[in-house]
Write a structure and sequence with these properties.
Layout: H1 2-20, H2 24-34, H3 40-47, H4 51-70
Helix pairs in contact: 1-4, 2-4, 3-4
Length: 71
């Protein structure tokens, strides 16, 4: 049980560090999309950007997160 807690704590800290490396608005958009479950349309309206811009920025943010987590 302590091994699981240790691994979970490491994962939470690592994700937090990587999220902090994103632009603040885009880190918030990632959270809104993947934690709150907002759609691309809802996010585009909320952040006042075109739909394709939101899709592109989320995709780029996920790529940056993946690179950070794999480092």
């Amino acid at each position: 049980h302590s091994s699981y807690q240790s691994t979970a704590g490491w994962a939470t800290r690592t994700c937090g560090v990587c999220m902090q490396r994103l632009e603040p608005d885009w880190a918030s958009a990632v959270k809104d999309a993947y934690v709150q479950g907002l759609s691309y349309n809802e996010l585009a309206e909320q952040y006042k950007v075109p739909l394709n811009t939101m899709r592109t920025r989320l995709r780029r943010s996920l790529i940056k997160l993946k690179e950070c987590l794999e480092a």
